[in-house]
Amino acid sequence: MARSSLASAVRQIATTVDTYASSQALTGPIRETVTALAIRQRADAIFTWSIGATALDAVNVDAGYGHQHVFLPASPGSGALTADPEHEGSNS
Asked: Which residues contact 38 (CB under 8 A, 6 or more apart)?
């Protein structure tokens, strides 16, 4: 699950970049609409990344390697998970 979520998030970010790049050739309300779509795509990608990052952290702790935080910053209210307060490498 960790690998699939992280890979999916990377693909979603690539789509976000393509959408944003395409918006640059537009003007007026359509540009605003497409830019807003890119912002939503980014939020979805970060949410997907947070699921993979949490799964990876759990796998590492279960395997005895401790916490590994690979979180990306998310917008407040996006629903994305945040890094837990445990120190990197700790097994608690």
From this structure: 16, 19, 20, 23
27-36: b (≥16 Cβ within 10 Å) or e: eeeeeeebee
Whole-angstrom distance, CA of residue 80 vs CA of residue 27: 31
SS3 (DSSP) at 91: coil
Q: Residue 1 in contact with residue 53, Cβ under 8 Å?
A: no
pLDDT tens by residue, 19-58: 999 999 999 999 999 999 999 999 999 999 989 998 998 8
Q: What is the pTM of this model?
A: 0.79
